[in-house]
C-alpha cells in the first residue's frame, strides 16, 4: 500500500484499531460480560469509525473536491459531501 496518502494511512490505522475493538466486543458478549461494559466498548468502536470517516472525508475534500472546483466541476462533489453529512447527522 505504498500509494496510500498520509490521511488514508491514518484512517486505515484507526479502522484496524476499531476492528480489534470489535473482536474484543464479540468476545465480551460470548463470555456473557456485563452489558454496560459491552455498551461502553461499542461506543468506543463507534467513535473510532466516525473518526476514520472524518479523516477520509477530509482527504476527499482536500483532493477530489479541490480538484473538481479548480476544473469547474465542483458542484457535484459538494453535493456528495452534503449527502454524506446529512447521513452523518442522522
UniProtKB/TrEMBL annotation:
Q: A GO CC term?
A: cytoplasm
Chief location category:
cytoplasm
- Source domain of life: Bacteria
A Pfam family matched by this chain, by name?
Trns_repr_metal
Q: Which GO terms describe its molecular function?
A: DNA binding; metal ion binding
Q: Name one GO biological process term.
A: negative regulation of DNA-templated transcription
Q: Matching Gene3D superfamilies, A to Z?
A: Metal-sensitive repressor, helix protomer (1.20.58.1000)
State its location(s): Cytoplasm
| Keyword annotations from UniProtKB, A to Z | Cytoplasm, Metal-binding
Instruction: Provide the family line.
Output: Belongs to the FrmR/RcnR family.
What do we know about how this protein assembles, alone or with others?
Homodimer.
Task: Please state what the protein is called.
Answer: Copper-sensing transcriptional repressor CsoR
Amino acid at each position: 500500500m505504498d500509494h496510500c496518502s498520509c490521511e488514508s494511512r491514518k484512517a486505515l490505522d484507526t479502522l484496524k484499531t476499531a476492528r480489534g475493538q470489535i473482536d474484543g466486543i464479540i468476545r465480551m458478549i460470548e463470555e456473557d460480560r456485563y452489558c454496560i461494559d459491552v455498551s461502553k466498548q461499542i461506543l468506543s468502536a463507534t467513535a473510532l469509525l466516525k473518526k476514520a470517516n472524518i479523516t477520509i472525508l477530509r482527504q476527499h475534500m482536500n483532493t477530489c473536491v479541490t480538484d473538481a472546483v479548480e476544473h469547474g466541476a465542483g458542484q457535484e462533489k459538494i453535493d456528495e459531501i452534503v449527502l454524506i453529512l446529512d447521513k452523518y447527522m442522522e
